[in-house]
Amino acid sequence: MNTFEFTVDEQGKRLDKWLTDQSDDWSRSLTQSWIQEGYVTVNDETSKANYKLKIGDVVRVKVPEVEELEITAEDLDLDIVYEDQDVIVVNKPAGMVVHPAPGHPSGTLVNGLMYHCQDLSGINGVARPGIVHRIDKDTSGLLMVAKHDKAHESLVDQLKNKTTIRQYEALVVGTIPHEKGTVDAPIGRDPQDRQKMTVTEENARDAVTHFQVIERMNGYTHVLCELETGRTHQIRVHMKYIGYPIVGDPKYGPRKKHDFSIEGQALHARTLGFVHPVTGEQMTFEAEVPERFKETLDQMKREFPLT
Fold it and tell me: Could you tell me the pTM of the whole model?
């Protein structure tokens, strides 16, 4: 049984809703069941789901052990950008979890892949067949998937050797004055909140993100970010670290949020490039930002033009 401890830094939000925001793997119904069954305490006392949190409250969650997940194939109408007998490139929509986990047993990318094809690599076990790398639930965009273990090993080696191309479009809070930059800052678990990552020297791994300005608005910037490494929440953490958090980010964004149409962080994996694990051919794929991203960008241009 894993135990997580959080110190609340915002006031008035319902306990069940707030807990859901602490992990992409925790659904509202899951946190409500944990609260009802006594797995959640506030200041060392059991509470109700509708308890309104206060700044400084200490919330502890004892996540109960779960049985090994049995994956059900589901027809999810995946956006397959490319496929052959070795690899698949898929354009994941925002809101879709990559693989099953407690609170998200169905509706994930893996559920859809299991319906789409049965020949997926088994290196990551039964819960993550074919999954070479992940993007967050509310991040949209391109992922590469391996159909067999040889392809999986090759793609993982390319990630480790930093030879893949992974470019993201993002909308960030603040007008970045310079045209481009590099954030070279190690990332590890936040000791104050184990569900968050942070720039730290303690138990951290090297992390490098390059960024370039696409367009500026008054108080917002449209940027292109390129990953040199691939740490958990890397772009979200690095952009916050330099003072330009991603618009709509529930974990790392500012508390005061403008009313944009996008749900979750405005982050999209636009470009993915790698060497084909069998043919040796260099392959590069592009996926346009989704409609909600476009709508938010258009709204920014209308309401916050750079004068």
Answer: 0.78
